[in-house]
């Protein structure tokens, strides 16, 4: 982290980390939503076919 601050500057490093965390949070939320939908659809399918 210190190498990034020395190379790019504090301001760019700070905003880069904020952007990285934001992008990873969006990806995590999207994959969690898709997993919940898939799990729900699987439970509905198994209930119908029993």
From TrEMBL:
Domain of life: Bacteria
Name this protein carries in UniProt: Uncharacterized protein
